[in-house]
Amino acid sequence: MSFFNTQVLEIHEITILNNSFAPIKKLYLKEDLIAFNNHWDTKGKLEVTPVDATFSAKEEHYKFDIVYSIKSSKSEQTRWLYHPDGKVVVLSKQLSPFYQIKDVANFNKLIGVN
């Protein structure tokens, strides 16, 4: 299922932050959100242990703040952590699975990551 399933979920914007929490890019145009979703749909779940997949605070990483609403409800936000090698995980108090984006180079270009 698409992350941006328009029958259920309406994405308003995605803000990309660097590891110092400074915004580096904001995606809000429909074509950018569609392009993001096309890459997002390629992600596959990684079979790694939490220790192997953790992000070091000193390591280069980014955050995605995704603002969305479900069936016209009030807006909500979720944060994902992203490593430029394509690994992504939702920021949560619970242990969450890691995923891998397939076309890392083009995804990084879309989100403004070198």
Describe the structure.
By secondary structure, this protein is α+β, with helices and mostly antiparallel strands. The chain has one domain (9-111): Dna Ligase, domain 1. Helices cover 20% and strands 33% of the residues. A seven-stranded antiparallel β-sheet has the order 2-1-4-5-6-7-3. A hairpin with a 5-residue loop joins strand 4 and strand 5. The radius of gyration is 14 Å and the shape is globular.
Short account of what is shown:
With 114 residues, the chain is an alpha+beta fold. The protein has helices at residues 30-40, 50-53, 104-111, and strands at residues 9-17, 23-27, 44-45, 62-70, 76-82, 87-90, 99-100. It has a single domain, classed as Dna Ligase, domain 1 (2-Layer Sandwich).
Task: List descriptors.
seven-stranded antiparallel β-sheet, 7 strands, Dna Ligase, domain 1, 3 helices
* Strand order, sheet with most strands: 2-1-4-5-6-7-3
Q: Spans of 5+ residues with little confidence (pLDDT < 50)?
A: none
What structural class is derived from the secondary structure elements?
A: alpha+beta
Over all CA atoms, what is the radius of gyration?
A: 14 Å
> How many runs of DSSP E, i.e. beta strands?
7
H and E string: EEHEHEEEEH
Mean pLDDT: 84
Domains (count): 1
Overall form: globular
